[in-house]
Amino acid sequence: MSPSTSPTPGPKIIQWILDTRPLWPIPQMEKSRDQVQELPNVASRAFSLITEEQKSSVLKYYHLRDAKMALASILLKNLVVAKYSGIPWKSITLQKSELGKPIYVPDKSKSPTSASIEFNVSHQAGIVSLIAAIGYEEKVEVGTDVVCVSERGTRDGEMVDRDGFFAWVDMHAEVFAASEVEFMQKGPISLDEFGIPGTIVAGGDKIEQCEKRSGSVKVKIMDGGREREEALECKRVIEVKFRRFYAMWCLRETYVKMTGEALLAPWLKELDISKVKAPAALPEQLDEESLKPGEVGKDFHIMFKGKEVTDVKMELSALGKGYMVGGAVRGRVGLEMGSWVELNLEKDIFEVAEGNL
User: Fold this and answer.
1) Which of 13, 228, 265, 279 is an S-S bond match for 318, by CB 3.0 to 4.6 Å?
2) Last residue in a domain, options 191, 224, 241
């Protein structure tokens, strides 16, 4: 179903993506703040749909990319409420939970339906994601996170070349369980993560110990009943390890956001997510701007305070060459997520908003 058509009845999970990178282009200026202050003129149609308080929250940012994502986040939150509550766009008001998370509380005096709407948003490197649970009688919690593996690629690579990959992971160890840190540093890596057929029969430990991007490691591979030796560039090994790290980061952030807390939650080290393999982009995915869906990771093993978590469904999807987006839902057994749908600003947002002011 197109996001711009009338919503179908019944409980559902909504997963939307909005790419702000091509939206509201503003010429480079000497000061980043000047670009941000120009945004109300360039994005006047979008600004006409938000409150004065929301406008101020967008214009507080120093960098244009952050302001655009903040604007898109507001539009997506209003869109999901407008589409599924029946409330006119201009009448939408969101409240905050005890933990400061934006929430929608149905108001029967304004809405023709009292359908529950639980949502969560995330944004990174120009991409904004929204996941929502619509119309469930029981409580359903949702969370999402977006990561861009290449956004800090140059800086990450330089730090790894200087200090080593293990030390780089240790910088972030306070937000991971000890077993997760060990897995990211030294966990086995299969050949399919390099896009190479076959199975490593010798030299896998060299890949696990690889810490810097210079040089190569030799491994023996069994493929089709034949054994061969191949040299894997350490640069490629580190790229695979970076992708696994950001996959782990995205999953943890997705889970934590589902709870309404942040990565400063006191129980972080008691959350342990395993059986993680970073979803791969499509082999032909070379366009940095594309968000074409790739692999989807599922069936992660989640432990919390020593007990298995069975009421949370998590997925991690590759988008384009460098992005991954996570989704989490907690509620009754059998809840399922679908595919992430990329929205069109004109068709899917403006037409809905302006047709229901």
Assistant:
1) 279
2) 241
340 part of a folded domain? yes
Is the distance from CB of 208 to CB of 187 less than 8 angstroms? yes
Same domain, yes or no: 35 and 138: yes
SS3 state at 145: strand
For residues 285 and 136, membership in a common domain is answered with yes
Domain count, the chain: 2
Calculate ∠ Cα 70-148-232, nearest 5°. 175
How many other CB atoms are found less than 10 A from the CB of residue 134? Answer: 21
| Domain membership flag for residue 3 | no
User: Which residue's entry shows tokens 């469904």?
Assistant: 313
Axis crossing angle, helix 64-85 with helix 32-42, rounded to the nearest 10: 30
272-323 residue pLDDT tens: 999 999 999 987 766 778 899 999 999 999 999 999 999 999 999 999 999 9
Contact indicator for 225, 299 with CB cutoff of 8 Å:
no
The alpha carbon of residue 246 and the mean position of all alpha carbons in its chain are separated, in whole angstroms, by: 10
Cα(182)–Cα(137) distance, rounded to whole angstroms? Answer: 41
Tell me if 272 sits within 8 A of 302, measured CB to CB.
yes
| Of residues 56, 55, 71, 58, the one with CA closest to residue 128 | 71
Q: Tell the residue number behind the tokens 């730090």, with chain if given.
A: 159
Helix, strand or coil for residue 167?
helix
Domain boundary among 241, 273, 301: 241
Contacting residues for 10 by C-beta, under 8 A, at least 6 apart: 135
Query: What secondary structure letter does DSSP report for 337?
Result: -
Q: How far is CA 74 from CA 94, 181, 267, 284, in A?
A: 10, 35, 30, 34
First and final C-alpha spacing in the chain: 23
Show the tokens assigned to 214.
């210079």
- Residue 226, domain extent: 153-241
DSSP for residue 282: P
- pLDDT band, residue 1 (cuts 50/70/90): very low
**Residue partners of 101: CB distance under 8 A and separation at least 6:** 120, 260
Residue 8: predicted pLDDT: 60
